[in-house]
Amino acid sequence: MPAAAPPPAPSSLRQRRRAVATQEIVDAAERHIDQEGAAALSLRAVARSIGMTAQALYHYFPNRDALVTVLLAKAYEDLTDAVRAGVDAAEDDPDVPRFVVAAEAYRRWAVTHPERFQLLYGTPLRNYTAPVDGPTTRAVRQLSAIFQRELFGEFSAERLAAAGPVALSPGLRAHLEQLSADPDALPPPATALLVSAWGHMHGLVVLEVFGHTSFIGEHQADIFHMAMRNLLEDVHRRIPDGAGKG
Fold it and tell me: Under a CB-based contact definition with an 8 Å cutoff, are residues 57 and 46 in contact?
């Protein structure tokens, strides 16, 4: 029987203090965004709010972009957790598809945290560029995977590859085929459907968060629920019948 791996060495007091201070900075930055908006994010103001000098804050985050990247990744993770929790808590009710449950959880998080949602999807912060394949990219993929599963989980790869009815242009198909080189990736037609569905769902949420559907009043959730059911039915109609489920 192989020997058990030794337990990880405990973190030092210095490391624990740094972790606590880092979390305090992130929490303060989130409060600043909630109160002032993402565009007004200021390292100096964040530092001042927790009794720290701006110079001291740079020991934890070397520049604004480093802090923004952490804030973006955390917002994506919190949104993903909210969507996952909504799906996990859903009962197996055929009248309420799990894709609709996931979409409604997405909407609830957005309208509850409008400033953090706008940090993710509003006007890009000036001069900020997310690291290539960094934590924000990984967080987006985790969120997308939930919707991909709930939208297409019951269909075989063969049926998804035959989805339509609109034919993809040669250029778009070639690009999507490059993206689908990963064994777990969707076939190009399904990827096109997923992006289209995402745009429809996300667009309705953006309109609400930015106040463009306020004339609907308290019925915005009802409109969204109806739209998501219609969206799901439309996507599934575009996938041909066949024996290859699962």
Answer: yes
19 Cβ partners below 8 Å, 6+ apart? 11
Q: What is the pLDDT of residue 10?
A: 67
Task: Classify residue 215: in a domain, yes or no.
Answer: yes
User: Which DSSP category does 54 fall into?
Assistant: H
| 92 located within any domain | yes
* Cβ–Cβ under 8 Å, residues 33 and 119: yes
Higher pLDDT, 225 or 184: 225
Q: How far is CA 205 from CA 9, 19, 162, in A?
A: 45, 34, 30
Give the whole-angstrom CA distance, residue 226 versus residue 241.
24
Does one domain contain both 177 and 130? Answer: yes
Query: Rounded to the nearest 5°, which phi and psi values hold at 29?
Result: -65, -40
What is residue 218's DSSP assignment?
G
Q: How many domains does the chain have?
A: 2
Residue 58: CATH number of its domain? 1.10.10
C-alpha span between 239 and 159 (Å, rounded): 6
Measured between alpha carbons, how far is residue 147 from residues 50, 104, 121, 214 in Å? 38, 12, 17, 27
For 179-186, the CB contacts below 8 A with 24+ separation are 186/148, 186/152, 186/160
Taken as a whole, the chain contains a residue count of 246
The range of the structural domain enclosing residue 56 comes to 11-62
What confidence score (pLDDT) does residue 1 get? Answer: 44
74 and 178, same domain (yes or no)? yes
Backbone angles phi, psi at 167, to 5 degrees: -75, 140
